[in-house]
Amino acid sequence: MRERLKELLTDLMQIPGLSGYEGRVRRYLKERLVELGLTTRTDGLGNLTATLDGAKGAPSVMLFTHMDQLGFIVRKVEANGLLRVERLGGVPERALPSQAVTICVGEGRDVPGLIANKSHHATTPDEKYKVVPYMDLYIDAGFASADEAKAAGVEIGVPVVYRPNVIELANGRIAGTSVDDRAGCAVIVEVARALVEAKARPTVHFVFSVQEEFNLRGALTAAQVLKPDISIQLDLLLATDTPDMGYRGDVRMGGGPAMSMYSFHGRGTLNGTIPHPALVTLFDRTAAKLKMPLQRSAHTGALTDSAYVQLVEGGVASIDLGFPMRYSHSSLEVVDPADLEALTRLLVASIGAIDRNFSLDREDYVG
């Protein structure tokens, strides 16, 4: 399983899919689901869904993750061929100069470029410690004129992403672009593989959502159609085992999957998720049966689709599960495939335990 997960993740990280432009990622995932014998459908927003029918009377489950990534949109092509861009998603400005990028004009026709970094020999003392606002940055793709850029398919509105990259690190760990959330996509494919063969399972909707990095758009649309009883969202959980992150919590890379007990985004979007107690109990008990560590996370500053999915209809029992990840939203993020494997096993066992007797009545979980 771990090798399949690594292969899936490696493939997915090398496919560009900016928010609103997820088509290449969706086609790859559709092929993997069809190979498992599942029928897929794509809604008007671009979400990819496959439904696996299960026991009647059991709560239905929406297992989902997002397939888009953050990046940029070309906003201007200068007369000299240099490109100006708008940010799409939470792109960290301090990590942008000198980054390699891919300008996505079309499969097989993408254009490489780099975000310019002022020559060190011309940098003033004041500039050396200053973060350059993205509005002042530009991309150099080698074009000598705006006409040359346009001839290559580069014009206003074209998506730009960090250049897809995968690096194998020590102890089997992987660094790469868009681990957030292609790792979640790989896990769901593996969960689907296992549940297709499972004798006991509820109805499960596997959803790969769009535009999560663009203010959490896609999963809400899918949930409004599917009307699940339970939603389980997969995404990164901040690893706190590096010197700069220790004060944020106790989530260790290689320590197994993690469960979010509280999330809140206090900058602009005032929303978050407090998990349903039935699901906290389910995953705690399943992890104990599997003799598997289940880490816990609670933090502000991040937000997932579950914050909105939980509000559909009369309320959806929701929880965020994930994998420890380092360096979120950077051009290279780091994940441990061992954590992805453990997360897959936890999900398969937990979802398989949801039957017609599984209660979502909060009064059954009074603390």
Please render the helix and strand layout as text.
Layout: H1 2-13, H2 23-35, E1 40-42, E2 48-52, E3 61-66, E4 71-77, E5 83-88, E6 100-103, E7 111-115, E8 139-140, H3 146-151, E9 159-162, E10 166-168, E11 174-176, H4 179-196, E12 204-209, H5 218-226, E13 230-238, E14 258-265, E15 271-273, H6 277-289, E16 295-300, H7 306-309, E17 317-326, E18 333-335, H8 337-352
Parallel strand pairs: 3-12, 3-13, 13-17, 14-16
Antiparallel strand pairs: 1-2, 2-12, 4-5, 4-9, 6-7, 6-9, 7-8, 10-11, 11-18, 14-15, 14-17, 17-18
Helix pairs in contact: 1-4, 1-8, 4-8, 6-8
Task: Describe the model.
Helices cover 25% and strands 25% of the residues. The chain is α+β, with helices and mostly antiparallel strands and 367 residues long. The protein has two domains: 257 residues, Aminopeptidase; 92 residues, Elongation Factor Tu (Ef-tu), domain 3 (Beta Barrel). Strands 1, 2, 3, 10, 11, 12, 13, 14, 15, 16, 17 and 18 form a twelve-stranded mixed sheet that branches. Strand 4 and strand 5 form a beta hairpin. Helix 1 crosses helix 4, helix 1 crosses helix 8 and helix 6 packs across helix 8.
Q: What string gives the helices and strands in order?
A: HHEEEEEEEEHEEEHEHEEEHEHEEH
Q: Give the biggest beta sheet.
A: 12 strands, mixed
- The backbone outline, from C-alpha atoms, is globular
CATH superfamily of the largest domain: Zn peptidases
CATH architecture of the largest domain: 3-Layer(aba) Sandwich
Number of domains: 2
**Helix count?**
8
Taking the alpha carbons of the first and last residues, their distance comes to 37 Å
Helix content: 10-25%
Q: What fraction of the residues are assigned to beta strands by DSSP? A: 25-35%
**What structural class do the secondary elements suggest?**
alpha+beta
CATH topology of the largest domain: Aminopeptidase
- Quickly name the level 1 CATH class of the largest domain: Alpha Beta
Radius of gyration: 21 Å
Mean of all residue-level pLDDT scores: 95
